[in-house]
Specification:
alpha+beta; Lipocalin
């Protein structure tokens, strides 16, 4: 009887861990302008920083569930849900695919409680968790 209970407990632990990993993105995240601009300042010339600092960052919101993602600007209506799947999860990064015909893969790299999305090999934007705005 003890062995049976132990196996059930282990099975539940594995199932809850794999579910939590699959939902690592779950929540509402907002672009962090200050953090993004500080990172850009380290690698970009001042002209690029001045152009980008004029209200460009800090407005995009992402809302993730275990199967869907929404994106919208903070002064706009909540976006429509788009299905996604995790195609790679390794250490501090996750690659998601949007099987809506766009063939777009998106790599998110976690740093602390925030993640960053790369536009190319050098440029990225930080997103940090916020309270839901539903």
């Amino acid at each position: 009887m003890f062995v049976r209970i132990a196996m059930i407990a282990v099975g539940l632990g594995v199932a809850s861990h794999s579910g939590a990993e699959g939902c690592r993105l779950s929540g509402v995240w907002k672009s962090d302008a200050a953090r993004t601009l500080a990172a850009i300042a380290v690698t970009s010339d001042p002209k690029a920083l001045n152009t980008l600092s004029d209200g460009f960052f800090g407005h995009m919101i992402h809302e993730w569930t275990c199967t869907e993602m929404r994106a919208w600007l903070d002064d706009d209506e909540r976006g429509r849900p788009v299905g996604y799947k995790i195609v790679e999860s390794e250490g501090n990064s996750v690659v998601v695919s949007f099987p809506d015909g766009s063939e777009q893969n998106l790599r998110l790299t976690f740093e602390g409680e925030c993640y960053k999305i790369f536009f190319d090999e050098q440029r990225f934007e930080y997103f940090c968790p916020i309270e839901s705005q539903q």
